[in-house]
Design goal:
Blueprint: H1 33-38, E1 53-59, E2 65-71, H2 73-76, E3 81-85, E4 95-96, E5 103-104, E6 110-111, E7 117-123, H3 126-135, E8 137-142, E9 164-172, E10 181-189, E11 201-206, E12 212-216, H4 221-232, E13 239-243, H5 256-269, E14 273-276, H6 279-285, E15 292-300, E16 306-316, H7 324-333, E17 343-351, H8 366-384, H9 388-393, H10 415-424, E18 454-470, E19 477-484, E20 487-492, H11 501-513, E21 517-520, H12 537-565, E22 572-575, E23 578-581, E24 587-589, H13 590-594, E25 599-605, E26 622-637, E27 643-653, H14 660-679, E28 685-686, E29 689-690, E30 708-715, H15 731-749, E31 755-756
Parallel strand pairs: 1-14, 10-31, 12-13, 16-17, 20-21, 27-30
Antiparallel strand pairs: 1-7, 2-6, 2-8, 3-7, 4-5, 9-17, 10-15, 11-12, 11-14, 15-16, 18-26, 19-20, 19-25, 22-23, 23-24, 26-27, 28-29
Helix pairs in contact: 4-5, 7-8, 8-15, 11-12, 14-15
Amino acid sequence: MSNDAATEAPALDGPQPEPPALGLGASLSPADARAKAEGTFPYAADLWAEGLLWAAILRSPHPHARILSIDTSAAAVMPGVRAVVTHEDVLGDSAYGRTVADRPVFASDVVRHHGEAIAAVAADHPDTARLAAAAIAVEYEVLDPVTDPEKAFAAETLHPDGNLIRHIPLRYGDPEITGDVIVEGLYRIGRQDPAPIGAEAGLAVPRPDGGVEIYTASTDPHTDRDLAAACFGLDPDRVKVVVTGVPGATGDREDPGFQIPIGLLALRTGCPVKLVATREESFLGHAHRHPTLLRYRHHADAEGRLVKVEAQILLDAGAYADSSSESLAAAVAFACGPYIVPHAFIEGWAVRTNNPPSGHVRGEGAMQVCAAYEGQMDKLAAKLGLDQAEIRLRNVLATGDILPTGQTVTCPAPVAELLRAVRDFPLPPLPKDTPEAAWLLPGGLEGAGEPGAVRRGVGYALGMVHMLGAEGADEVSTATVKVHDGVATVICAAVETGQGFSTLARQIVQETLGVEEVHVAPVDTDQPPAGPAAHGRHTWVSGGAVERAAKMVRTQLLQPLAHKFGMSTELLQITDGKITSYDGVLSTTVMEAMDGKELWATAQCRPHPTEPLDESGQGDAFVGLAFCAIRAVVDVDIELGSIRVVEMAVAQDVGRVLNPAQLATRIEAGVTQGIGTALTENLRTTRGVIRRPDLTGYALPTSLDAPDIRIVKLVEERDVVAPFGAKPASAAPVVTSPAAVASAVRAATGRPVSRLPIRPQAAVAAP
């Protein structure tokens, strides 16, 4: 599929039946698509309230310093300033964190990263608030920052909890065994920013009962509420988070570091307080993808079959823990990739430094190791004289095989089928060596390269991700479905972040109840929790809860009819808004059967439990897995090192296609995000200080950078333990595409390409 056909349904092998207009399998459009396209969608930055005050946050210019004094007097007396808060004004817990409460609301004695919050101001105008924040006098004793994660082990202690967040030693098989062929590699992955669409913003409104309501584009409102309530010194039921204006998210959409200060200011002033972060503040405040250092040694036999993998994986968590423990678990567990490895010995660490904080970004942990183990597979292919695809086919994982964590792969794992699909897909034609085709050169029309210096490379990568939370995470979601007067309403706290849950919920109810008009209620914390929007959990867990609730309503609807005609409800079916019996005796519409009644039901969905990895890295830590194969075709100017991605051929294990157009869009977006990781996105720092924290210094891929993205195969082998049998769609291509691009650049240049993003000097051909 080309990138100019985002709404086109992905092509499947063989003749396909006509897709339905409604329900599962239909390409139902998102309810908010028109508003977002026309610019009328109300984002969080558009929020307003009577008597509104504006907030600004003072942030540290140093990555590591001791705070000697904080003087807020000059700011407090400025006209229009209503409140100034520091660590002394935090009413409850002084620190917060999604897994470990180690990050202070405001730094009190030590600053641990560039951009750490020191104080916040509320004023009657945003410019006044920023001027007042700048007027706060902070005296620092600047300390040497620890920015090299390898030196964090022996460095001075940066945090009371220590510099080591987690260590996972994975032991699987015989440590003494060796292979006929050994290749080694050192790989580095840069710091990627989630770069959320639109400004990070929020509005806090005090309540008459002494509580507060926070309106923001949260992706995990109940966790955000609990974190905020603890810092406010309030019971959770006195804090309400209302989700509003979510434009899309590829990681944490709204960091609590933006929400908690405005809540404190609202409680302090008794007025609504709004914060709209600048892009620079976003770069400084929220979490990024973990920069990672990876050392690998692969052992194989003479025919290229893997014997043993040894690896050391070091995640730079930055100043605080955030989700580093979970990211490390994924990195260690998937360090060998979707390959059969009889013996594996992996050491993984996540450490604190004075670098910017790291946290959840789509495909965390799995993306970094994919780039490394696929680099190793290319090295093995070159050393053995094998084709890149062939060496992978000789080692691919399948259902029934065992991961190095000791967990058996019970879900569908059609890895070989995916790889063959991209391998056998026709290659794109070579561009003509003429001036008219200059735009096809790496660098485009303004590029300085010569057509004769351009080399084409073809590379492959196989990636895997886990579904839902891992290592014993309690995954549960609750949903309510109500039907009245032919209109259904779904109430579920699953946030629509662009992954398509709201559309899926509508499709589920349409399919189950035959009701065409379905609305999804706005999300707030008065509803039962549904958990974070990550790892495909809302498709599985929240979608499963909606399906169960809808089926309960269906039973309520059909039981009176079944009783009247002396048959069971299983003998009745709902199609296109009509209820019919197997023998044709009964035929009526859903509206007639409702007869003005209101039906509703509430249900939960909780997948089977998992367990933490033990002291040897063993355990059934994951609910399920999803796989992806990508073939990348690139053109490289071997003199200048400029790279153009020509085509990405994608084959993916999706379980079941629930919405063809939406699925294609998710895959294309994931591939494009991965291309940014491979070529342009790197939040650079100098001794812990972020360099150019804006969208000119941080280069996101644009539509001009997006290649033709061909979805050549979608394997619909349903996972029997998942509702609808579907698997997550977007994380797998994000994980796989950077490794595929790097593989293609290796093929074009003969260079090892061991760093992402790929620097121009790494793409200059070897002499």
